[in-house]
Amino acid sequence: MTARTAGTELAPHDWEKAVGATDGKQLIVGGPGTGKTEFLVRRILHLITNDIVPPDRILVVSFSRRGAADI
What letters, b where the CB count within 10 A reaches 16 and e where it falls short, cover 49-66? Predict the structure, then answer.
């Protein structure tokens, strides 16, 4: 999968690098359909499957029902 940002796309390697980054907070900004929710889901899965954060310590809040359903 590629992620679109400001008219460009992230290569799969860069996508996985961003998902697996552990050097602090991340700010994901993009318009509709650019992969923000997909990134969030992959990031959460990465944190859980690699035992970085236990599932009971993660809270995800969405501004829309569709976003919540996607998550």
Answer: eeeeeeeeeeeeeeeeee
- Residue 2 CA to residue 14 CA, distance in Å, equals 9
pLDDT digits (tens, 9 = 90+) for 6-28: 445 778 788 788 888 877 788 88
Domain that holds residue 44: 3-70
**pLDDT band at 1; cut points 50, 70, 90:** very low
Q: What is the domain count for the chain?
A: 1
**Are 13 and 21 within 8 A, CB to CB?**
no
